TrEMBL record:
It comes from Halobacillus karajensis. SUPFAM superfamilies: NAD kinase/diacylglycerol kinase-like. It comes from the Bacteria. InterPro entries: ATP-NAD_kinase_N, Diacylglycerol/lipid_kinase, Diacylglycerol_kinase_cat_dom, Lipid_Phosphate_FormReg, NAD/diacylglycerol_kinase_sf, YegS/DAGK_C. This is Diacylglycerol kinase.
Amino acid sequence: MKQAMLIVNPSSGKEEALDHVETIKEILTEKGYEVSVAQTEKELDATKYCQGACKDEFDLIVSMGGDGTLHKTINGMVDQTHRPLLGIIPLGTVNDFARALDIPLQVEEAVDVLRSDQTKAVDIGRFNDQYFVNIVAAGAVAEATSEVTPEQKTKFGSLAYMMEGMKTLTNHSYPIRIEYDDKAWEGESFLFLAALTNSAGGFENLSPEAEVNDGKIHGYVVPKVSMIRLATIASAIVRGNLKDEKDVQYFKADRIRLTSKEELVTNVDGEEGDPLPVELSVLPSHIQVVVK
Ligand SMILES: Nc1ncnc2c1ncn2[C@@H]1O[C@H](COP(=O)(O)OP(=O)(O)OP(=O)(O)O)[C@@H](O)[C@H]1O
């Protein structure tokens, strides 16, 4: 019999994950799965449960939570030899990865997707010795977005990231060296983003050129510019044409190395990551996700 594990974070978003467990069990039982349920209590539980399910050669893992739960689940799967199929029920406040994969944000509809036999291979990013699925940001804005509280997220959603990010952007630049494949950019920058998908912080147009399985990391450097230019660039982020702004440096790469003379933090899929220096690379089409 096929084996499925539901990794359930009861605290994500509006705290409704447990309400959907029975329906999902029924759907998967009909599809011939034996279903086990693993409820998370703390930060690394999702990683631990997922590692166990990979070692026991489960066929399907369903992440029921927000991007944090998904990020931790995927981190338990990426370096395993047996990687089960991944189902995603977006129950967080932002749910960037679900947005990027066109998985409905309406929970009942997302649950219904589990009936589908369609799957899509997606790229996974390596960030030093951990992994990411959406985006890495470097510099002061990364610090600011890590400081967005769960209360702000619940109240303002993606706007909370925008508000914190913009507050910081307007008065903070930093020296950075970005080596990508055999090229390099060096200078004062307001913001550096490395995207694997189109959506980050709930902005589905942030990096529209990034396809989930194009095997590339999409880099955007916003250099230090005047406040007026910065306002135009900020509106280009919302409109979805950041890469066309004349001061913005855009590139596609297999590998990126970031260094700085200053102490700089990073933000990885919405959570604080290692400070620079960091190395990024991509594992092309590494995980199969159930899609509609
Ligand atoms: N039972 C639990 N009670 C409280 N916190 C938990 C529990 N289980 C896991 N966590 C914490 O919840 C965090 C992940 O939350 P998650 O990102 O899924 O939801 P969210 O913050 O509401 O969503 P989003 O990231 O989309 O805004 C994990 O980092 C983990 O530390």
